[in-house]
Amino acid sequence: IQNRVIIQSFDPRTLEVVHRMQPQLRTALLVENPDSLAKNLRRLSFRPSIYSPHYKLVNSALVRACHQRHMLIIPWTVNTLDEAGRLMQQQVDGLITDYPDLVKGH
What is the pTM of this model? Predict the structure, then answer.
Protein backbone atom coordinates (compact mmCIF):
# COMPACT_ATOMS: atom_id res chain seq x y z
CA ILE A 1 0.00 0.00 0.00
CA GLN A 2 2.91 2.40 0.64
CA ASN A 3 3.45 2.76 -3.13
CA ARG A 4 -0.13 3.96 -3.56
CA VAL A 5 -0.35 6.33 -0.59
CA ILE A 6 0.72 9.95 -0.30
CA ILE A 7 0.14 11.76 2.98
CA GLN A 8 -0.35 15.46 2.37
CA SER A 9 -0.84 18.25 4.85
CA PHE A 10 -0.51 21.99 5.30
CA ASP A 11 0.69 21.32 8.85
CA PRO A 12 4.38 20.35 9.06
CA ARG A 13 3.75 18.77 12.48
CA THR A 14 1.44 16.21 10.89
CA LEU A 15 4.04 15.32 8.30
CA GLU A 16 6.71 15.04 11.01
CA VAL A 17 4.58 12.51 12.93
CA VAL A 18 3.90 10.49 9.78
CA HIS A 19 7.57 10.54 8.80
CA ARG A 20 8.66 9.49 12.27
CA MET A 21 6.17 6.58 12.32
CA GLN A 22 6.43 5.50 8.67
CA PRO A 23 9.47 7.10 6.99
CA GLN A 24 8.95 5.05 3.84
CA LEU A 25 5.59 6.73 3.11
CA ARG A 26 5.59 9.51 0.55
CA THR A 27 4.62 12.91 1.91
CA ALA A 28 3.49 16.16 0.33
CA LEU A 29 3.85 19.57 1.93
CA LEU A 30 0.86 21.69 0.93
CA VAL A 31 1.74 25.39 0.82
CA GLU A 32 -0.48 28.44 0.60
CA ASN A 33 1.97 31.09 1.83
CA PRO A 34 4.30 33.12 -0.41
CA ASP A 35 7.41 32.18 1.62
CA SER A 36 10.39 30.81 -0.28
CA LEU A 37 10.84 27.12 -0.96
CA ALA A 38 13.82 27.07 1.41
CA LYS A 39 11.86 28.70 4.22
CA ASN A 40 8.94 26.30 3.81
CA LEU A 41 11.25 23.29 3.75
CA ARG A 42 12.99 24.48 6.93
CA ARG A 43 9.69 23.82 8.72
CA LEU A 44 10.42 20.11 8.28
CA SER A 45 13.29 17.98 9.53
CA PHE A 46 13.21 15.93 6.32
CA ARG A 47 12.61 16.53 2.62
CA PRO A 48 9.08 15.62 1.50
CA SER A 49 8.56 13.65 -1.69
CA ILE A 50 6.26 16.33 -3.07
CA TYR A 51 6.02 20.09 -2.76
CA SER A 52 2.42 21.22 -3.38
CA PRO A 53 2.05 24.98 -3.54
CA HIS A 54 -1.10 26.88 -4.47
CA TYR A 55 -1.05 27.09 -8.25
CA LYS A 56 -0.69 30.89 -8.26
CA LEU A 57 2.67 30.54 -6.47
CA VAL A 58 4.22 28.38 -9.20
CA ASN A 59 6.79 29.74 -11.63
CA SER A 60 9.62 28.20 -13.64
CA ALA A 61 12.21 29.01 -10.97
CA LEU A 62 10.22 27.18 -8.29
CA VAL A 63 9.79 24.15 -10.53
CA ARG A 64 13.55 24.05 -11.20
CA ALA A 65 14.34 24.45 -7.49
CA CYS A 66 12.06 21.56 -6.56
CA HIS A 67 13.52 19.33 -9.25
CA GLN A 68 17.07 20.22 -8.18
CA ARG A 69 16.10 18.97 -4.71
CA HIS A 70 14.69 15.76 -6.22
CA MET A 71 11.14 16.67 -5.23
CA LEU A 72 8.06 16.49 -7.36
CA ILE A 73 6.01 19.68 -7.62
CA ILE A 74 2.25 19.21 -7.80
CA PRO A 75 0.25 22.44 -7.43
CA TRP A 76 -3.32 22.70 -6.17
CA THR A 77 -6.23 23.44 -6.94
CA VAL A 78 -6.05 23.91 -10.70
CA ASN A 79 -9.57 24.19 -12.11
CA THR A 80 -9.15 25.91 -15.48
CA LEU A 81 -7.66 24.58 -18.68
CA ASP A 82 -5.64 27.79 -19.14
CA GLU A 83 -3.95 27.41 -15.75
CA ALA A 84 -3.40 23.69 -16.32
CA GLY A 85 -1.71 24.47 -19.64
CA ARG A 86 0.50 27.17 -18.13
CA LEU A 87 1.61 24.86 -15.34
CA MET A 88 2.25 21.91 -17.62
CA GLN A 89 4.43 24.15 -19.81
CA GLN A 90 6.45 24.93 -16.70
CA GLN A 91 7.05 21.19 -16.26
CA VAL A 92 5.11 20.55 -13.04
CA ASP A 93 4.86 16.86 -12.22
CA GLY A 94 1.10 16.76 -11.76
CA LEU A 95 -1.95 18.78 -10.83
CA ILE A 96 -4.49 18.68 -8.04
CA THR A 97 -7.92 19.62 -9.39
CA ASP A 98 -11.59 19.37 -8.55
CA TYR A 99 -12.22 18.45 -12.20
CA PRO A 100 -10.06 15.52 -13.34
CA ASP A 101 -11.69 15.54 -16.78
CA LEU A 102 -10.34 19.08 -17.26
CA VAL A 103 -7.11 17.92 -18.86
CA LYS A 104 -8.33 14.63 -20.28
CA GLY A 105 -7.05 14.33 -23.83
CA HIS A 106 -4.65 17.30 -23.55
Answer: 0.94
